[in-house]
Amino acid sequence: MSKVRHVLGISGGKDSAALAIYLKDNYPQINIEYYFCDTDKELDETYILIEKLESYLGKKIIRLKAVEETPEEQFDHFLKLYGGYLPSANARWCTKKLKLEPFENFVGEDPTISYVGIRGDEYREGYISTKTNIQSIFPFRKNIWSQEIIRNALSNANIDILSDICNKYIEKNISKTLLDMIIEPVSLQYDQQRKLNDLLSISTSAFNKIIFEYLKSNDYPISYLDNYPLLDNEDVLVRDDIFKILIYSGVGVPEYYNKREFELDGRKGYYARSRSGCYFCFFQQKIEWVWLYENHRDLFEKAMTYEKDGYTWLQDERLKDLIKPERIRKIKQEQIKKTCKEPKPQSEYLIDILSDAEGEGCAACFV
User: Fold this and answer.
1) Given 1.10.760.10, 3.90.650.10, 3.40.50.12710, 3.40.50.620, which CATH number is that of 5-145+235-249?
2) What angle separates helix 204-215 from helix 159-169, to the nearest 10 degrees?
3) pTM score, whole prediction
């Protein structure tokens, strides 16, 4: 285990925080390095969460800075380099410069396993480094391996290799059933995802052992390990599990997830923040911008100062227009209407009444 580094990025959101707690509680033998890429534009609640996590984990969370020697805050330094061009969904230079590059510089060339908090009820891969010395593992999912590994391993060209591994390492009582699936070629009628699901349904741990042995002949970081405790992991954790982990551990849920009530024309609505990341994250929904304006006026006003020379956070609207009374009223009306279409929320968190597109800010790319 000492040849390989194990790292976990804390984004300030619920999933990465819960993953840190989960791994400490269930796999204490893995020596994990925790890190946080600081943009200097985070909400105070993010730093509070990090302090609580450090107390629970009994270990420091390393703060990574994109630029160490600069009198400016991290985001402002790069904004100047980009000539005032604000980041957007189509030009996410903030993610690259403030998150990805600091992470990859932190890892360097060491063989590294990066633990990613994508849940079992999510259908995305997240950030996968192009560096061959960094490998992502997804402990919350039934399939802990990346799409790249599955695509390579379950290629028809590897049927004989996987069959030999199955015969050599898997118990006879399940190897026969697994072999029937392994030798079935991927085709238009039997695609790779279906084959993966069938193999996992027979035995997740046996499938993981087959992939682990297969990877030993490939140049992945995990090939340096003689054994790996997550091979026997059969947990599948979804959104409700994440909140339970945070609450029962005592770390708690970040304050910005707590929905707040507002009233309009005698009708009640709710708003909050659905993601971590910078307070001016361009992925925010408009109701979240209203939440920021009404609950963190100083930060909203700071965000407004960045809108100049034609650059705006929203493609179709300036922040100074978004906070006009009639515009706020319309946004809240839309939020109430949306809330009424959904089942009555059962918990105190906004994401129960928003669509589950709550990616954890720009950090969602890789943590």
Assistant:
1) 3.40.50.620
2) 120
3) 0.90
